[in-house]
Write a structure and sequence with these properties.
Chain lengths: 189, 375
């Protein structure tokens, strides 16, 4: 098993920490992992992205052009990374703030209204964990218990009381992710 | 007990240094190396192991503190990134001339000048061709993973003390700032003063006793014969390094028709390119020099009899390619590919370059027809 993921959005949305939690969960599940934050000209303009790879084998390049899964959290990232999903791959996105929805029909597309659900939970910061739950529902590459174990290991002890909130957010994400159908007039491969 | 952690390369190197029982670190912050000094400071090393960690007033001060501390037989290291390492070159030359064990870490960024804070491998020439003045070389280790950032600290000190010579760990902004799983070694005790004297008493300034001559640390020798003898002594060490301490990794080389040579971060990306090429039936191999000096000359010379062409992939405008050409003695076409300015090449770009520069050019020379498409 090798899963190559790009997570992309605005700085401050928890993109990098979501990648870190995913990577830590991978370690808990005995996977090889790599986490590489965005580099190069794409950093300009306040977008942040991270490439996370989980694999049963030694990971070669931590830096990639195409991905199995893209988790997209703003329009700039949609413009940049929709085309980077491998045919047959997965695109998960938060429709909040998206004006041009994805149009590819050779990949599987899902929506998760993470920002709205996090606001309803009364904690916007938990947004990234709602999205994480949505992704893990579609691709259960790590078990929920290993995500929680990863959180426990990566968070300082003073934040451990927040782990149940993170668990709740992931479950809400899992229960609210929906397939997105590209309208036929926009469809392209 | 070893333990698994998710760490940045810079942090893993810093933690490994503490665990290796290093006595002192002197440095100065610069992106993309700053996590290293930041991590060391956060660990309160004086409480943990008694290791001294000091932010010097400049890179030049830091390397001269290393010079001084190394003179006493202590395990000492410094780190910086490209512009800072340029500042250290005078001190590095003195340390090499005075034959002292020390470790220098360069987390390379793009240049020349202040350049960019993004990853680069443009300091290859500086690292393996001297850098500072005089007839000296550094033993250069090029880690290509976070695990190697951790493992190479102890290896570097072993070499430094085996030869009484400075060792460079040549990393870059990619390996320094990415996170991977790393298995940390158990904590070792720092050597006691008695152990330092037992190991280094014959040359180090550990305090003169009545029963021995003074130990003098200097790189100056105004008697030409004595200075030439010193240079010859250095050359002997470098020959011995080439015989005993060369390190490299061959990936898919056994049946390779084409070869990529790459080190550090480029080797990781090139390995993905090899995987893609192999999945399309194109027999590409990868030779990864782990030490840049000593360089795997003989391995390349031999592979040149087997492959149709070689692509040297580096994040620079073409530096290691010269050593690849020298090693293969022009038996096969050797070309360079690399991005600069902080841009990282993708595996697909490497394959495209391999196809254009080596496979197609090679076939024009030997077969007249285009034989395969990798992409």
């Amino acid at each position: 098993m090798t899963e190559e993921i790009i997570i992309a959005g605005f700085g401050g949305q928890g993109v990098l920490s979501m990648g870190k939690i995913l990577a830590y969960s991978g370690i808990m599940q005995d996977k090889e992992v790599s986490w590489m934050p965005s580099y190069g000209p794409e950093m300009r303009g306040g977008t942040a992205n991270v490439t996370v790879i989980l694999s049963d084998d030694r990971i070669s390049s931590p830096y990639l052009k195409v991905f199995d899964t893209a988790i997209i959290l703003n329009q700039q990232s949609m413009d940049k990374f929709e085309e980077s999903v491998k045919p047959g791959g997965i695109l998960v996105y938060d429709p909040n703030g998206i004006t041009h929805h994805p149009t590819r029909t050779d990949i599987k597309i899902f929506q998760i209204n993470g920002s709205k659900l996090a606001a309803e939970m009364g904690n916007k910061k938990i947004f990234n964990m709602v999205v994480m739950g949505a992704f893990l529902k579609i691709k259960p590459i790590v078990k929920l218990e290993n995500v929680l174990a990863g959180l426990k290991k990566s968070l300082p002890e003073r934040y451990h009381h927040l782990i149940p909130l993170n668990e709740k957010a992931m479950k809400i994400g899992m229960n609210n992710v929906t397939p997105y159908q590209v309208a036929s007039q926009f469809a392209h491969n | 007990m070893s333990e698994l952690k998710l760490m940045k390369g810079n942090e893993a190197l810093a933690e490994a240094a503490i665990r290796a029982g290093v006595d002192a670190y002197f440095g100065y912050p610069i992106t993309p190396q700053t996590e290293l000094i930041e991590y060391l400071m956060s660990q309160k090393t004086e409480e943990r192991t008694g290791m001294v960690c000091l932010q010097a007033e400049s890179e030049i001060a830091a390397i001269n503190m290393v010079y001084g501390a190394a003179s006493t037989g202590k395990k000492v290291f410094t780190s910086s990134s490209s512009p800072g390492v340029s500042l250290k070159q005078e001190g590095i030359s003195y340390i090499a001339g005075a034959e002292l064990p020390a470790v220098i870490v360069n987390v390379v960024r793009g240049g020349p000048g202040l350049g960019t804070i993004q990853p680069s491998q443009a300091d290859y020439f500086q690292s393996v061709k001297g850098g500072g003045h005089g007839d000296y070389k550094l033993y250069v280790l090029a880690p290509s993973s976070v695990q190697e950032m951790s493992d190479f600290v102890e290896d570097a000190f072993d070499i430094a003390f085996k030869y009484n010579a400075p060792v460079l760990i040549l990393s870059d902004g990619l390996i320094g700032q990415m996170m991977e799983k790393v298995e940390l070694k158990p904590q070792q005790k720092r050597r006691t003063d008695a152990e330092v004297i037992a190991q280094c008493g014959s040359w180090a300034t550990t305090g003169k006793t009545k029963d021995r001559e003074r130990n003098i640390i200097t790189s100056l020798d105004l008697q030409s014969e004595k200075m030439e003898a010193r240079v010859h002594r250095l050359l002997k060490k470098y020959e011995q390094m080439e015989k005993e301490d060369l390190r490299f990794e061959k990936i898919n080389c056994d049946d390779a028709e084409y070869l990529i040579v790459a080190y550090g971060s480029s080797a990781r990306i090139a390995q993905k390119a090899v995987e893609i090429a192999r999945s399309k039936g194109v027999k590409v191999g990868l030779l990864r020099p782990i030490t840049l000096f000593p360089f795997p000359k003989k391995q390349l010379f031999d592979l040149a009899d087997q492959v149709k062409g070689i692509l040297s992939v580096e994040l620079n405008a073409g530096q290691m390619v010269e050593d690849v050409k020298l090693s293969t003695e022009f038996k096969v076409p050797v070309e360079h590919f690399g991005r600069t300015g902080g841009i990282i090449h993708t595996p697909e770009e490497i394959l495209e370059a391999l196809e254009q520069k080596i496979i197609n050019n090679g076939s024009i020379r030997h077969h007249k027809t285009r034989e395969s498409s990798i992409l």
